[in-house]
Amino acid sequence: DTGVSQDPRHKITKRGQNVTFRCDPISEHNRLYWYRQTLGQGPEFLTYFQNEAQLEKSRLLSDRFSAERPKGSFSTLEIQRTEQGDSAMYLCASSSQVLGNTIYFGEGSWLTVV
Amino acid sequence: GEDVEQSLFLSVREGDSSVINCTYTDSSSTYLYWYKQEPGAGLQLLTYIFSNMDMKQDQRLTVLLNKKDKHLSLRIADTQTGDSAIYFCAESKARSQGNLIFGKGTKLSVKP
Q: How far is it, in rounded angstroms, from Cα A18 to Cα B77?
C-alpha cells in the first residue's frame, strides 16, 4: 500500500517534553501538509511543503512547533515543551501538483499531553 | 464567522438516501472536497468537485455545487450502516493551495 503513512499512531507524553511525528507521503507526491484536529472540530491547517520548501505556515504554528522536509520526501513535525492544549490528532496529507492536487490524508497521530 | 458551515447531525434509515449540505464563503475556491472520518481514524477522500462544475457522480455519491449560493451537497444513495461516520466538507482557496478550510463535520447515523 502506498498511502500516506504516519508514525507513531499514538503518543502520550508529560507536559514539558518534546515530541516528534513522522510522515511519509505517497511516493510520487511533491506536496505535503500538516493539519491538527481536536475533538468535535474539523482539521485545521498548520503548514505546507512543496518539495523541500515550506511555502505556508498557519498562525496556529507557534514557535514551539517546527516542521521539516529536508529531502522533499518524508517530513517531521516537532513540538517542543508540550502543553496540555497541544493534545490533538496531527494529520499529514499529500498531493501531486502534476496529478491534479487531490489531497490524501494519513491515519493521523494522536497526541495526549498529561 | 465560519468559512465552511455544515449541520452537525443527520439520521437516516438504511436504504434511504442521505443528503449532507455545506455552505462556504469564498467565491474564489477552486476545489471543494468531501471527506469521511470514522471514529479514531484519519480522513478518507470520498470525492471532490472543481469549481467550474455543477455536478459530479461517482457510484452511490452525487455532489451538487451551486456557486451562486456557495452551496455544496453530498447525496449518498442507498445508505448503508457502514456509511455511518462524520462527513467533512472542505474548500481549497485559490490564493492558498495548501490550506483546506474544513467545516466541523456532519455526523451521519444510519439506523437499520
A: 46
Query: A-chain residues within 8 Å CB-CB of B40?
Result: 110
Q: Which residues of A touch B104 (CB under 8 A)?
A: 40-42
Could you read off the pLDDT of A104-113 as tens digits, one per residue? 999 999 999 9
Which tens digits make up the pLDDT trace of B71-85?
A: 999 999 999 999 999
Among chain A residues, the shortest Cα distance to B102 is held by A42
How close, in Å, is residue A45 to chain B by CA atoms?
Answer: 6
Contacts 24+ apart (CB under 8 A), A47-50: A47/B98, A48/B97, A48/B98, A48/B99, A49/A75, A50/A97, A50/B98
